[in-house]
Amino acid sequence: MPKISRRAARRSGQEERLQRVSSASSPATQRSGSPQEIEQEERLQRVSTLSSSGSPQEFFQSLIRPLDLQEFFQRFWERQPLVLHRSDAALAGYYGSLFPLSGLRRLCARGLQYGTDINTCRCVRGQKRLLNRAGAVDFCLLERDFLEKKATIQFHQPQRFQDELWRIQERLECFFGCLVGSNVYITPAGAQGLPPHYDDVEVLILQLEGQKHWRLYEPTVPLAREYSLEPEGRIGAPTHDFILQAGDLLYFPRGTIHQADTPAGAGHSTHLTLSTYQNMSWGDLLLDLMPGCVFDRMKTDCELRTGLPRGLLTTPSISPAVSHQLSVFLRRLADVVDQQGQSLRSSSMRRDFISHRLPPFLQDPQLLQPVGGAPALQDTVSLRFKDHLLLTVEPSPDHTDEATELLVYVLHSLRNRRDTHMMMGASDEDEDDEESQVGGLRFPLSHLEALQQLLVSDRVPVEDLQLQQEDKLNLLLALWSEGLLRVTGALENHH
User: Fold this and answer.
1) Which end of the chain is more exposed for a tag (fewer CB within 10 A), N or C?
2) Residues 297, 214: one domain?
3) Which residue ranges does the record annotate as region Disordered (predicted)?
4) Residues 329, 98: Cα–Cα separation, whole Å
């Protein structure tokens, strides 16, 4: 691909709204060497942090540098777009390595399918025109459509095939505590793949190759909960109008209307879209928590167990008297939660995340095996893969006379499938068998304190576990066999 000179960003009349952050280095007085040497050192450090196995927070901080986390979440997150323009050859090289166009032929040889793995499309007169062929993707035909039909190639969930994207998204899922999906868009010069639209996810754009011209518009539905197209005549003038170069980053909140095209004569553009926070609002949490909250309260509130008025289910609308009674119950529930510390139990959000997220970034499956010998009472132990582990208290699924018995579940994602991550086309058989695929263990409620102790501590002597002596080894052996426990010798000087 020929070298492309940097073009000045085009801006609308509302240019002052475009938030730009320079990638200036620290003052030279703080470090030795010339300003150029210091700048180069910091650039290399930034790329090293991105490509290293640091903490999830360190990774995200390196992704948005020079902005810090506090400023990002206070000024931009769910509020307004952020554009980071960078003139950083090392960072651009790293971005370009994530999904180069030159590697597409090799991926097509793995039996990719149109519709499932790849879409080809083009924006024509404000409408999306799908250009998919039938069946398996043939690279030569894909390349022909790209060059002759000006088709944009949309690659679904490339983390299934690219190890570094697996690592990036696994770190981001640990950081955000929710699912992170991705698509790669490869668009030829002078073409546009999608019409103006908005999404139901928070979006991070990494420009991998070439350049892309972006236009952003005021949301018609702030923090939208669904995807929607928006006609040009309705969205008005763009609030932001700019070009991303390789190594640049763009963030915008869900609901932000946007469209992007590759400038004519600029060569192709490749960008990575990272998306997160789908169905992760306070409203979604209430939908998840309220059934369990009401169920628990019915055990002690006799009024909630009284019968409904006769004929209520057959009346065309809810009467004012019924609405008033419901509001009384809701206020009472709110008081219980606020004043008495009602224990709230998630019914599906937490399980959905842990069962569908990426597994830990481990290229050697042997690293998931138990570490050290089987635990003994004189040992010291620690939990492994804490970022991929979830403690939850839920009713027993067993149909017994004690149907409301609560159990502690230790759920984990160690053996989740990378190859199906975020793929909505899972077979019905996979969906029906989803419950059995969730990795985890269950214990009596009496084990909760000991499990919490292990979760918050770096290392715990077995004798200090808050659990009956006869139960300690049973708990630890189950965790160790699952690959969740590391066993070491006794702590020195421990009494």
Assistant:
1) C
2) no
3) 1-42
4) 53
Between 45 and 459, where is the model more confident? 459
Q: How far apart are CA 137 and CA 494, in angstroms?
A: 62
Q: Is residue 475 part of a domain?
A: yes
Residue count of the chain: 495
- For residues 420 and 450, state if they share a domain: yes
Q: What is the mean pLDDT of the chain?
A: 87
72 in any annotated domain: yes
Q: What is the pLDDT of residues 263-293, one digit of tens each?
A: 998 899 999 999 999 999 999 999 999 988 8
Range of the domain at 269: 15-276
The Cα–Cα gap between 21 and 88 comes to 14
- What number of H helices and E strands is found in the chain? 15, 19
C-alpha gyration radius of the chain: 27
Residues 268 and 385 in one domain: no
- Indicate the number of domains in the chain: 3
- Given a contact cutoff of 8 angstroms between Cβ atoms, the answer to whether 374 and 453 are in contact is no
Provide mean pLDDT across the span 43-66: 79
The answer to whether residue 7 sits within a structural domain is: no
Residues in contact with 88: Cβ distance below 8 Å, sequence separation at least 6, in sequence order: 23, 43, 46, 247
Query: Does residue 314 belong to any structural domain of this protein?
Result: no
For residue 69, give the CATH number of its domain.
2.60.120.650
Kindly report the CATH number assigned to the domain that includes residue 384: 3.90.930.40
The SS3 assignment for 263 reads coil
User: Distances in Å between the alpha carbon of 341 and those of 312, 334, 392, 394?
Assistant: 33, 10, 17, 17
The two structure tokens encoding residue 210: 């070439």
- Looking at the structure, tell me whether residues 287 and 179 fall in a common domain: no
**Does 300 share its domain with 366?**
no
Residues 231 and 289 in one domain: no
Output the CA torsion 45→51→53→58 (10° steps).
50
- For the entire predicted model, the pTM comes to 0.86
Scored b (16 or more CB within 10 A) or e, 37-75 reads ebbbebbeebbeebeeeeebebbbbbbbbebeeeebeee
42 pLDDT tier (thresholds 50, 70, 90) = low
| Token pair recorded at residue 96 | 């370009």
CA 258, chain centre distance (Å): 21
- Ramachandran assignment for 149, one of left (phi > 0), alpha (psi -120 to 50 degrees), beta (any other): alpha
Which SS3 state, helix, strand or coil, does residue 321 take? Answer: helix
Based on the domain organization, do 70 and 193 belong to the same domain? Answer: yes
pLDDT value of residue 20 = 43
Structure tokens at 120: 């080809």
Residue-level pLDDT at 27 = 35
